Amino acid sequence: MPEALPAKADHVDVLIVGAGPAGLMLANWLSRFDMKTRIVDKRGTKIISGQADGLQCRTLEIFDSFGFGHRAWRESNRMLEVCFWNPDRDGVLRRSDRIADTISGISRFQLAVLHQGRIERFLLDSIKEHSDITVERGVMPTAFEFDESKAANFADYPIVVTLRTLSDEEATPAQRQQHYRNADGTQSVISDGLFQSNLVADDTDDLIRMAKDNNHAHPVETVKAKFMVGCDGAHSWVRHQLGFKLEGDSTDYIWGVLDIIPITNFPDIRYRCVVHSANFGSLMVIPRENKLVRLYIQLQVTQHAQNRDSADRSWITPEIILQSAQRIMHPHKIDYTYCDWWTAYRIGQRVGDHFSLQERVFLAGDAVHTHSPKAGQGMNVSMQDTYNLGWKIAHVVKGYSEGSILRTYQSERRRVAQDLIDFDYRLSRLFSTRSAKDTTDKGVSMEELKNTMERGSEFTSGFGVNYGTSVLVAKEGDSVEQGDGTEVAANLSQRVVSKPHLATKIGIGKCIPSFKVLNQSDARPWHLQELLRSNGRWRIIVFPGQLTMPQNMQRMQRLGDQLGSPNSFIRQYTPYSHPIDSLIEVLTVHAGPRTAVELLDLPEAFHPFDEKMGWDYWKVFVDDESHHEGHGQAYVHYGIDPNHGAAVIVRPDQYVSWVGEVDDYDDMARFFSGFMRQQVVSKSDIESRPATSSTV
Amino acid sequence: MPEALPAKADHVDVLIVGAGPAGLMLANWLSRFDMKTRIVDKRGTKIISGQADGLQCRTLEIFDSFGFGHRAWRESNRMLEVCFWNPDRDGVLRRSDRIADTISGISRFQLAVLHQGRIERFLLDSIKEHSDITVERGVMPTAFEFDESKAANFADYPIVVTLRTLSDEEATPAQRQQHYRNADGTQSVISDGLFQSNLVADDTDDLIRMAKDNNHAHPVETVKAKFMVGCDGAHSWVRHQLGFKLEGDSTDYIWGVLDIIPITNFPDIRYRCVVHSANFGSLMVIPRENKLVRLYIQLQVTQHAQNRDSADRSWITPEIILQSAQRIMHPHKIDYTYCDWWTAYRIGQRVGDHFSLQERVFLAGDAVHTHSPKAGQGMNVSMQDTYNLGWKIAHVVKGYSEGSILRTYQSERRRVAQDLIDFDYRLSRLFSTRSAKDTTDKGVSMEELKNTMERGSEFTSGFGVNYGTSVLVAKEGDSVEQGDGTEVAANLSQRVVSKPHLATKIGIGKCIPSFKVLNQSDARPWHLQELLRSNGRWRIIVFPGQLTMPQNMQRMQRLGDQLGSPNSFIRQYTPYSHPIDSLIEVLTVHAGPRTAVELLDLPEAFHPFDEKMGWDYWKVFVDDESHHEGHGQAYVHYGIDPNHGAAVIVRPDQYVSWVGEVDDYDDMARFFSGFMRQQVVSKSDIESRPATSSTV
């Protein structure tokens, strides 16, 4: 694409296109590594209301691993129970059932709701705290070149992108503003979300055209990048450049969304509700923060049949949506004075055919999966895409890992997207079809809907994700079958397989569950996941069992000797100038009792010494009764025998790679040898390096 | 005191002198009321290290009621266990015992440690969020006049104070800086805390003298105030102006304090420890945030006898203090490279003879009580002084309450100070005396120390406070005896006495304990105290028992009719323009089950309706099993019969005023009539006022 000569040029490690949740999560990850990162977004401002709002437990855990989970948890509204309403035999709407909204014990968090603007705020604050990365708003890419000959060398820059800064008018979406008539006759202005809805053509092409006309007024620059990630939404510019496709279908179901402070006598308005009316479609109630309630309301398109063939959306107004809600909720009244936001969308499910171009350009979030919003998954899965990708890119850029780990991104995340789409298809059909009058009726039975939701709870909490075997996940089976079809297995000589019977309740390829353990040195309880901060470290978590049993202490001694030796794989893979725990951190959780063990009796590898800071008191923990917060029963919950123990390797994103014997140093070493790079240091370097740790 | 003509004059509701924890807590309270408040401090900068650090559970609860408890809780180090070390029969130091540091179940928080500078930061942020009050630093009062003839009229300004802005040099304390020799031979600079220690003469007089010399250079102004509060420390200028005295004694015991990152093989360095050596005195270990440990170390003054008679403190250095610690901890090693702060102090216990001048000028914090720091009480009791005082001043200034409530400040807080001093005296003696060799020895027995600490746990957690009967606390007994000697009883005709048997585990005059209850409208668990935000509201908490019992529902109906009537005392005391729940809020906790009750079946007084916001879903709660956080068992823990119920009146500072029958509207009305002021409104105002609520 010929362009005017660029005004300046820049070289970056990673260029992120799009500053929604997926793009910001990626920038947030990369802010933890000292890397040259840029992130651009064509919109001139951050969103302040509406959009996505559902937060999985797993997403809250990820936020917590970055240090801002508490902000989301405090501000959000919790969703604890789902109430089902459907017509009784006389056709009158009744509460037919209640179920818990989150599986008991699955997480220290529960499903919650908070609008996307706050999530983006937390991510922005976190990025700012850890780096000088700033979002460049009103900036969009207009041309893309890829030099395949440079793709194999990860020190090289195969990507060239032209960026253009837009004018203020260009960067402001053409949002419809309308005067809405309140019940008391006054008027107020409500912004709609249709400009981002899938009912409206995206305005990217218009923006590019406008920007070209402005060539002289606004700066243009060329950026050369090692990696580029398109987090630029359903109408992704990056995806179009790559020529990749979304595969799937749309339905004819149209749903409206209202964010209102409800004035109603419906008794369950602060519970999540699924309401099926006899004849007017269905509706979902999502109670939100700040007294708001979001209603997802099925619109009776047949009433507006004259418009169906065209793209005309003018018939969709807040009043039309409200009237649908009123019909569905009858005989209960519902009205509002304050409307915070509204939109409408057509249900559809689509997944990208490819997630990456030669592991140099990646797509994430809505750019590669679109679906209905009602399961509250979209923002979560999008952020989890880049949470999966971020550390892999960073470890390759930093030279810690081989580039082969990058192939696992598509293998792992495209499979998740496919599973999501399947789930959403089933759920959407159940929501959009009228409820059955009796067992002979072909409408949806409430029992089927309830069962689907209950079975889907692990999935909607974010814990259904189970990454297949690969260079990063040491388990039985075939990596092509367990993923999306991409080959990501380790070389045979380096392949390691876990011994899952040693920790029967830890799923290899799944996120490590979290239970409370106590710090050996001060008896403070921590959720295990709180120890697994997202700072790029791999962890070897040693569960040595009861250390009062001599054979268990002997195995610890053996492992400690090997890990602490100057030739250990940890030392080989950790850059000379970095603390010994900065790439692979060793944590211990023994089976207690706490008071029977003294920290300093364990080998130094488990609590490194530093000349200026003394011993590290934040590496050894115990599964024991706490003074004020009960007993975490971690060994029971992980299915580990306290007489025997186990060791677990956990990825920097908290997914489990390997389970094996406490003292199986060789398998640990073999696992890491499949993708880690030996750091080049002289012999004298190794001998003189102090065993320092960097915990704060 | 003759002065140059003031450059300008100002009228304020409250002038706060001193911006330490006590002064900032007061400003923070007042920031919740729209009042004219100024706060001045002679120091030019906020402290950034050292000073006080202990946080009672009760203090964390108060922080949480202002919305920043989580900040302190996240940053602080928890103290969960105390280890006792003393010589064994052979004179070798051994761990002799462990006890929990906080009584189980007493609070949702535990004892914690975080340095004063962070606490002040949280208070400053909170003040800024809620008001435009800013601390005027480098400003000190230099003259004070009090017009007694104006003291009886609370709309008048009896106080006149001259304020002077200091130069930068004047506002910087003469802090000693010294080069300290590290173990490796390098040098570093450590600031000491002696300038604020009681071993140094305060520099206030010097500052005043210097300021006078600077008359022309720096602005002077006159402030007229309704109230003034002296939070200006042990050498309080305000106290001197009033001619009040601190009563009590100093001892000869001198203790040093080191904040260091320890390099040690002492195994319990991250537990709180009390270490008694055989011959070299005792030491306390306080593990802190950011890897720091504070050591309180008894200094062997006799070794420096040549200096004892003079005020010479030059012999006290970090090295002297460290050497004492090393002797005490022998045979364990202790050393450090990094020292964050150090100081030394002489143990003494003193209490002010008066806490107020005609309820117009008050003293709080170190200005009226000084004691040793080792029980971790100082900062807590100081902030709790002004937490007690703030809402009382605000309610009088706002015209909600009679001035009579202000007398309870001295009655309640001077008694607390006396109790604190008694406790500290006993504890200090036990710490400073050598441990007994056997039962015939007159040293301190470890058993006695451990018992004193265990018995003191309720006190040191902050829950020992039990305010006596008064116009604000409706219980049996004599107000003079139960307080500090001040007469604060209600008039006989308005005196109400609680029925404690209805809630056997709620102490009248004590802080209401907190247990989890569920919101009726969304099943979310809340700690009861989380519902009692510090926003100036009184609460009537109705525990109606099981509402499935018809008689209990009938009593709720009766109470609801009376509270909701246009003539109810709530309406009489609430200013016309304010929401109905803004001064006295009605909360309900029924005994369950949750699913057997519908919110809208309860009278409107328990969930007020607003035309724009709909029903209030945040007033009715239930004592029932939660989905993920267990069963709070609130009725069991409060000692309330679920077949019968009780009602509780709670002060704006979470202390319990009254316990009575659910439907005892008359006693509730009589209680409030003892000090509340009827708001002047027309009859038509009352009839037309909507029943709005203001919960957010």
From TrEMBL, chains A, B:
Residues 465-679 form the Phenol hydroxylase-like C-terminal dimerisation domain. It comes from the Eukaryota. GO terms for molecular function: FAD binding; oxidoreductase activity, acting on paired donors, with incorporation or reduction of molecular oxygen, NAD(P)H as one donor, and incorporation of one atom of oxygen. InterPro entries: FAD-bd, FAD/NAD-bd_sf, Phe_hydrox_C_dim_dom, PHOX_C_sf, RIFMO-like, Thioredoxin-like_sf. Residues 12-150, 219-423 form the FAD-binding domain. Belongs to the PheA/TfdB FAD monooxygenase family. The keyword Oxidoreductase applies. It comes from Aspergillus bertholletiae. This is FAD binding domain-containing protein. Pfam families: FAD_binding_3 (PF01494), Phe_hydrox_dim (PF07976). The keyword Ion transport does not apply. Keywords: FAD, Flavoprotein, Oxidoreductase.
